[in-house]
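Bumping with the actual sequence this time:
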Amino acid sequence: MKALVPSRDEVAKAVEAYNARYGNMDEALWCLSKSVQASLLRGESAQAMEVLVQTVRSWWGVRGVRTETPALAARALAGMKWSHVMFGGNMSAVNDPARFAVDCVSGLVGRMKELGVARAEFSLSAKVLHWIMPWRVPVYDSFVRKSLGVSGSTTPESAYRDIVAWQLNIATRLMAEGSDWLGTVDPLSPLRALDKYLWWKGGGDAGTAVLVKDPWRVCRQLGLVSR
C-alpha cells in the first residue's frame, strides 16, 4: 500500500470539487441515514433501512448485488448491537476505533451470509455502515484501493484493515491542523472527507458516476422532508 500523506489543502480541494458535483446527493443520503437510527436502536428492520441499503447500492455503483440483498442487509443491520454513542461525531468515542470499524464491517458481512446472501458483500457493507456511522467506519471500494495502491490480490479483510489504519491516522493528523478541510456538506466527518478525497483521486474526477437529478425524492417518499 502507498505511503500516501496528503496535505490539508489537497484534501480540501478534492472535497470542494466532490461537493460541487455530488453534495446534494450526500445531504439527501445523510437525511435518509439519520432516519434509521431509532429503528436500529430498537432492533427493528424498518422500510427506511432497506431503502438506505438500496440507495447506497444504486448511487454508489456496487455491482452484482442481487435483488433480495437490501432486505436481508436491513435484517442483518437490525440484528447488530447499537448504542447512541455509535452515531456520535467523535472518532475516538469507542475503544480501539480501528478494530471497531473492521469488526463492524466483517460482522455485517457474516450476518448477511447467514441470512442467505450468496457472496461476501464487503464493499456494500462498508459503504452502508459508513453512512450510518460516518465518524467510525471508512469506505471500502475499488476507488479507495486504487488511490492507496492496494494490491488486487489482497483479501478484502486484509485490505480494509490497512485502509482503516491509514484513514484514522491521516484523519487524526489533519484534524490537529484544523477542520476547514471537511467542507460544508453534512456529515462533516473526517472519514467522509477522506473518502471523497480518495474517491476523487482514484477516478471519481472523471465524472462517470451516477448524478441523481432529484436525490431528495427518496426522502420525500418516506415522508422525511417536503423539499
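The C-alpha cells above came from a reply further down the thread. The mean pLDDT is 93.
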